[in-house]
Design brief:
heterodimer; A: 114 residues; mainly beta; 7-stranded mixed β-sheet; 4-stranded antiparallel β-sheet; globular; B: 111 residues; 6-stranded mixed β-sheet; 5-stranded antiparallel β-sheet
């Protein structure tokens, strides 16, 4: 069976500090990988998605970047956090063989920038 | 017009009630539809996935899709307090890998 791991669960970081959130998927190969941010009352905002190693598509220009150094690893980073980066960050995966497929989510990271 | 509109609620019902959650969409390219359940401070959990118009049943949950009206619904029968959560509709289609989500409906089932 497939599992997705996302950590840490909660994070409090000062403004201007760097960020690294990691997500790994087990039990499947060549998944599509996604980073979402969820803000209260605003739904899920797609930040980045990747269909393969080194292939990153950015949906929203902002203070964040993503990388996929291995097939089942997806990393969300920032060099200098802003207060507005606070939120609930979710990693997700979907089957890589087709576009018409559901996504499966990790448990999320609640980031508070202070 | 937003691509996906979802009744925001909040919705409060007594235990045992039938719950109806709805989304409308404007993009004809959407061909497959999902419902997710999200408990507070947790990631969304896939409840139902459907590709065609009509009804799909799984236990107490029924997903309904009407592509001609661009309208989808999730029905919960015999609702339980454990069903209290935010319910998100999602849809996708075409040649991209992205899903479009509704903003979610907060449901509370009171014992």
């Amino acid at each position: 069976s497939q599992t997705i791991h996302q950590w840490p669960a909660t994070l409090v970081q000062p403004v201007g500090s760097p960020l690294s959130l990691e997500c790994t998927v087990e039990g499947t190969s060549n998944p599509n990988l996604y980073w979402y941010r969820q803000a209260a009352g605003r739904g899920l905002q797609l930040l980045f998605y990747s269909v393969g190693i080194g292939q990153i598509s950015s949906e929203v220009p902002q203070n964040l970047s993503a990388s996929r150094p291995q097939d089942r690893q997806f990393i969300l980073s920032s060099k200098k956090l802003l207060l507005s980066d606070s939120g609930f960050y979710l990693c997700a995966w979907s089957w890589g063989t087709t576009t018409n497929t559901e996504a499966f989510f990790g448990q999320g990271t609640r980031l508070t920038v202070v | 017009q937003k691509e996906v509109e979802q009744d925001p609620g909040p919705l409060s019902v007594p235990e045992g009630a039938i719950v109806s959650l709805n989304c409308t969409y404007s993009n004809s390219a959407f061909q497959y539809f999902m419902w997710y359940r999200q408990y507070s401070r947790k990631g969304p959990e896939l409840l139902m996935y459907t590709y065609s118009s009509g009804n799909k049943e799984d236990g107490r949950f029924t997903a309904q899709v009407d592509k001609s009206s661009k309208y989808i619904s999730l029905f919960i029968r015999d609702s339980q307090p454990s069903d209290s959560a935010t319910y998100l509709c999602a849809m996708g289609g075409g040649s991209n890998y992205k899903l479009t989500f509704g903003k979610g409906t907060l449901l509370t089932v009171n014992p």
